[in-house]
Amino acid sequence: MPKNKPKQKWSQDVTNNSDAMDLKDGVFKQRSAKKIADSLKASAEHSDRRKATPFQSAMSMLNFYINRAGKQLSKSRLATLDKAKDELREDFGKQPKH
């Protein structure tokens, strides 16, 4: 009988192997909201596979990560990721939401 591979959650697979863009390893583990936003922006702008604008693709990936991590995120981590949303909006010349 063949050994079964450990199952990877579908959401982790999406984060690791997005069809829209290639993310740098550990992008969501960075402590700086600015670094997270800058990395997502660069990945979105350099992707030739995305179907939406670079801003929409980057924001979607960030929201996807936040929504899938959900209750496992600490309050400080969630605050950093929410700040990354504002940084991303600023990087793309959009109005931050307050």
Report on this model:
The protein has 98 residues and is mainly α. It has a domain at 31-91. 55% of the residues lie in helices and 0% in strands. α2 packs across α4. The longest helix has 17 residues, at 75-91. It is globular and about 50 Å long. The termini are far apart.
Overall mean pLDDT score?
A: 84
Helical content band:
55-70%
Q: How many angstroms does the end-to-end distance come to?
A: 57 Å
Which geometry do the CA atoms define? globular
Sheet of most strands: none
Percentage of β-strand residues: under 5%
Taken in chain order, the helices and strands follow as HHHH
Oligomerization category of the chains in this entry: single chain
Whole-number radius of gyration?
Answer: 15 Å
**Tally of extended strands?**
0
List its traits:
98 residues; mainly alpha; 55% helix; 0% strand
Write a compact overview of the structure shown:
The protein is mainly α and 98 residues long. The protein contains 4 helices and no strands. 55% of the residues lie in helices and 0% in strands.
